[in-house]
């Protein structure tokens, strides 16, 4: 409860409930709409009260909660100031939605009762149906008008966001609700009676169909998409692959849920599967999709485009699909659809399988790209040097820049790579990395982002939060001095239209003047090293950066040659 004997207020009840729910942190960006809740939180004496994580921008507040959820599987809270704070956070909320992570977002509004609004500011910071801005990409929203209703909204929202498939929820709190004194506070809830619903299971008829399809398969292919990052789930996926003699392909954008040193592992592409992966995909006679987001897009690489291919789809994701967002991707063919989490499927199926099957797969070794040992730095050279610098240090890769060869990166633990941001929103990586660092603090596992210069520049506000919280984290910048993804697009269009390819960097280059990424990092309180321009400098620079990042955030600026154009 509050530290003084002053009257209780609506915000005190909200703060009490946030503590009872076990919300670990609140990423906040201050504003007058939350002065009531802020007062209630900072004047609490209980040690279990949520930590307040100050951020410089609402999008980074959401991204931090996103990164925390990617590591832990659990939600943290976000506080957004009024309608303008929500507007700032919209893209980051979409990223979190598309990545299917849990998150409790608290918004606020000036007094809904117009007669109570303060002049000017509470008029422009009040909107009718504020959640309409994000309703298409949150799982649920509410705008309670009483303390009792706010308590119920928090209970419901906390349950909904933690129920798979997960996604953010948004609750908008009126300033009057927060600031008005109350005579009697609602009784604290009995949390056990508000637990998430029991998960759906796998019935025997479905299990038998799976076993029948496996019995007819010589080359089953396991596709690991969205997944739980526990060591138990990791071990179950390995056991399943071995029990059915499967080859395994991971989607790096979802994180890598299978060890790269296992003989069944094919690859974990972040963007485009290579020719070797496409060949093996074409040889599969059964595909088991473990919540792979764009299954039809992947199977389109086969000569038959997956038509008639024996396919099992394991995913609860259809419960979230709506008519606004197309993050559900094309609708794939399937012989069997199981609307359950992959972990439930794997855990239930494993005891019914025989001992490890003999695999009919012949998986050729991963291609080893050539990289220079001197001179200008390429992405393969950066990947090679990073692997040496990493050594035995446990890391959590929060981003691998597009074009970095996944075959040169080791994935040996469920937290080694937690994927991308779901929605492809540039500027997300810094905040996600800070959220991961918050979750990993004290574990000895170092969060590392290998990210683009544009990504860092757009999300650089998160660096200050990392410095303020003294979070170990390493940002290795693939600095190609451009928004290079768009440069590639412009080159492709120029070639199709037979126009000058050399114009591709106009409006895309970040060179005149160049971004001073080191000044940006130091200005936010981080250590910064570089720029590193030659392969011969990489080992020493990465060693220095790894050592410094053990105690706080570090930015290493590496100037990298753009990758060769895709054929």
What labels would you give this structure?
567 residues; alpha/beta; Rossmann fold; 3 domains; 19 helices
Q: Can you describe this structure?
A:
This protein has a 6-stranded parallel β-sheet, with helices on both faces. A 6-stranded parallel β-sheet has the order 9-8-7-10-11-12, sandwiched between helices. A 5-stranded parallel β-sheet has the order 13-14-15-17-16, with helices on both faces. The protein is built from 19 helices and 17 strands. The protein has 567 residues and is an alpha/beta fold. It has 3 domains: 10-181, Rossmann fold (3-Layer(aba) Sandwich); 204-352, Rossmann fold (3-Layer(aba) Sandwich); 379-559, Rossmann fold, CATH 3.40.50. The mean pLDDT is 93.
The CATH superfamily label of the largest domain reads: Thiamin diphosphate (ThDP)-binding fold, Pyr/PP domains
What is the third-level CATH name, the topology of the largest domain?
Rossmann fold
Low-confidence stretches: none
What class, by secondary structure content?
Answer: alpha/beta
For the largest beta-sheet, the strand count, sense and barrel status come to: 6 strands, parallel
Q: Which percent band covers the strand fraction?
A: 15-25%
Q: What coarse outline follows from CA principal-axis ratios?
A: globular
- Our count of domains comes out at 3
What is the CATH architecture assignment of the largest domain?
3-Layer(aba) Sandwich
